[in-house]
Write the structure tokens for this entry.
Amino acid sequence: MEAKYVCSYCDQTLNVGKDIVLVAKNDVGEKGLIMLHAELGNYTSKFSPGFSLIEGDLINFSCPICKHKLTNRKNEKLANFIHIDENEKKFDIVISAIYGEKCTYKIEEHEVIETFGDHWARYQNPDWFLLF
Ligand SMILES: [Zn+2]
């Protein structure tokens, strides 16, 4: 099976090849599409034309299929979705919702098993990941 990312609410696939496609809303309420690189720790992103984000913007991510907010229930500065790897193993993925903040957490059974990005230490201790 091919690795994929799915929405925690509707279970639909969020990636097209190497891009995770999400709906994003920036600080001034503008909406657009954002494509995040599917490789964890790769912070390259693309936007739909006319949509922009500036460093420090709190992005409001939502699922393009069911429209559910992907904001972490304990911390609005984080967002989450699910990764299913090629062996059909399921992980929770938590990313920063602050544009320019590089931190990603891979969680298995309520435990952070891998971190990515220069800013991973910013959300080290809180118990946000216990909520899944
Ligand atoms: Zn969804």
Q: What stands out?
A: Residues 4-131 form one domain. The pocket of zinc ion is lined by residues 7, 9-10, 12, 63, 65-66, 68 (CB under 6 Å). The CA atoms of residues 18 and 38 lie 5 Å apart. The longest strand covers residues 19-25.
